[in-house]
Amino acid sequence: MKPCADVIVIGAGIIGAACAQALAARGLRVLVLDAGLHGATAAGMGHLLVLDDNPAELALSKHSLQRWREIAPALPDSCAYRSNGTLWLAANAEEMAVAEHKYQVLRAQGVACELVGGPALRQREPALREGLEGGLLINQDGILYAPATARWMLQANGIEQRQARVSAIEGNQVRLDDGQWLSAEAVVLANGIQATDLCPELPIEPKKGHLLITDRYPGSVTHTLVELGYVTSAHNASGPSTACNIQPRPTGQLFIGASRQFGTTDPAVEGWMLARMLKRATEYMPGLAQLNGIRAWTGFRAASPDGLPLVGRHPRQDGLWLAVGHEGLGVTTAPATADLLVAQLFGETPPLAAEPYLPERFLGVAACA
Amino acid sequence: MSPEQTDVLIIGAGPAGLAAALAAASSTARIVLLDDNPLAGGQIWRDGPQAELPEQARSLRERVLGHPNVRHCPGTRVIASAGPNTLLVEDAERGWQIRYDKLILCTGARELLLPFPGWTLPGVTGAGGLQALIKAGLPVRDQALVIAGSGPLLLASAATARHNGARIVRIAEQAARGAVAGFAAQLPRWPHKLLQSFSLFDRQYRTGTHVLAALGSDRLEGVRLSQQGNIVEVACDRLACGFGLIPNSQLGQALGCALEQQALAVDGWQATSVAGVYAAGECSGFGGSELALVEGAIAGHAAVGEHPAAQALWTRRARWQGFARALNRAFALNPALKALATADTLVCRCEDVAYAELSGHVGWREAKLASRCGMGACQGRVCGAAVQHLFGWQPSAPRPPFSPARIETLLCLEDISS
């Protein structure tokens, strides 16, 4: 079979797009196949944030945020990139202690951030309720409109896009829905939640989330506001959970999240879950109750058991590379994922240690590496 | 808070909804009649300071709203489904849930507005839109008006405008002369309709004529028309342009009702594919107010189990369905209307999305994500239908909130998981 490109990337979301762009930048011919299913890139908030639940997550998100700052000047307006900062909200002394700990960890890593006391919090964000303990502002976090950003990345020279559903993968060969086989030097699987359709051995679970967007209320919020309870309540819970997450869009609209549910693939907006999520947000910003919500939707995060993505060679399929399992952090970590993947493909030393993200931590060591 | 309970919930207080309420009220059923307008009457019987309602409308409205079994909720919108047989609704003050045994959807139709160069200039409205504005008090005295698009609504709109002192300088009907003449020749079969619309035939009426562009820089100054093959320009103060009506089927679609050619599919009892849910009037297919009245009455009787009374109306319905068929045939849209927009013509006014930003895409969802078309305050109510007409993209069923709603109202959905 004649190779149709140097690399085939499956999935045109932000991860596939970032990988394709980085591969094309090395002079490779890249074919991007997408089934048009619209995954997490289309559904998510486009929040760019440093997270420090564990050292590997911090290293990946911090490197990626640096990469986004380098990319930002080239992004067209439609990508709506803003470096508006994340303000983590502490409702009580216990959460403030978490904020202080985060502050120490992030400062030690050179991440610009500042602790904000209760009164100063309302000066910065007057719409917040009285009586919050304080917060932690991560100055260089940001936001962007991920669907437009992925499309921009895919416009790079050397990338060909095709709408096609892949029905099987065998190493560096893929079979399309119509039965046609395509091959390349390497195949990169970057199709998020759909990855298990092609590789059932991948330990990826869908984690459903709801989002709502309001009408335009310019100037009401400046930073992306996230409750620190998020760290404990939403990330680690196994049942349905919600956390306050309010993001101002450049249009003056507000995104309101976040919810998490396991064990469902039903995309319907569930009223009770939407209401619980909104209630949580109004507990932090009471004035939200009087704003108009204009649209709600859901999406599915591709969650791995340890919350870290799988980036690297598939240990049991020669020629197949993985870039999946980014959960809620795919937009943030797309450039770092691309850097890791490209370095491994070219046998170079990656800009950050690749080990914590290698697929073999779940799939076992390669038989024929 | 526990939901309000009712036997029959009717959504929409136009002719179909009023007729449904009156029919259902002949039993002992409790009825809630909900409407998003401040006054009952729907679009065709829209009331206001400059409106003159026909006697039939006035009397029907009085009988329904004065009926002890009927509770009228004006200015109220349906926001979401809140569990089995329950809807979350909102008015200016509050949000609450209503639980029903039977639901009758009389959600009407809206104008098809197709984008053309200049259509977003101040002074350009829909044809029905202008009529509504005038009834609500918009002054048009001594203004020069062009009314364009398709269907009898153009004539009704012209009549309202003229009655309020406007000068109608042109009525541009896109349908060909032969089609309109054929339709007019059949009108004696429906004499009442004849009086309502085509008695308004006048010397400014042109068939085979459609708008090409609205002219002007900051506001409308004139209209360029393709008039029976020639290009003409007409100076005017206002342009009212509507290309017929499209059914408001979204709520039914969200509740799972099957569609048939964009309208809610119904059987002989006006029952939809979802048990206990009926549909009547324009949302189940365009046919005018007489058809809406008889369909509403059938749905109202059927919903309270009075099937003989409903069946007694079938002949009358068949007669007005004949009228609807003739109408829809005569005013079928000319394919040339799909080519009015140029690359920079806005299609989505809420998000400023131009035609060129949409034309390369394969479907509605992809185009929406790429361009934000339909993501603004109207949530695709206007551009969704235009895009469907222009590109053949089927919009997906709406998700809650069905209309913009206060977040406080959405909080009422919290206790429906049980």
TrEMBL record, chain A:
Residue span(s) of domain FAD dependent oxidoreductase: 6-343
Entry-linked Pfam families: DAO
Domain of life: Bacteria
UniProt keyword terms in alphabetical order: Oxidoreductase
InterPro entries: FAD-dep_OxRdtase, FAD/NAD-bd_sf
Protein name: FAD-binding oxidoreductase
UniProtKB/TrEMBL annotation, chain B:
Domain (FAD/NAD(P)-binding): residue spans on this chain: 7-292
Coiled coil: none
UniProt key word Oxidoreductase: yes
Keywords: Oxidoreductase
Protein name stated in the entry: NAD(P)/FAD-dependent oxidoreductase
Organism encoding this protein: Pseudomonas fontis
